[in-house]
Amino acid sequence: MKVMTMCRYYGLRFQVEFLTRDAKQYARLEHGQARSQNKLHTHFNVALTAVSLAKATYYLSRPQRKREQLFNDVYKNDAHEYELHQ
User: What whole-number distance in Å separates Cα of residue 73 and Cα of residue 21?
Assistant: First the structure.
């Protein structure tokens, strides 16, 4: 496997991680009370889609040179907590 391909895969992996984390924090991904498989799939898809649409709407509404992360305060807090625990 080429190094650049591996770097792209690694970057995509982190995008999935961030999407899942944001869905847990902001879209109540883990708070569904459904029991059937179909309802659980619907709940997961709605939570992940809501976060994806929120991010896309935020990014596309800003000029390209002024775009930053949607949940920037969360990322800064996570980095600060990581530094404190090191």
Answer: 14
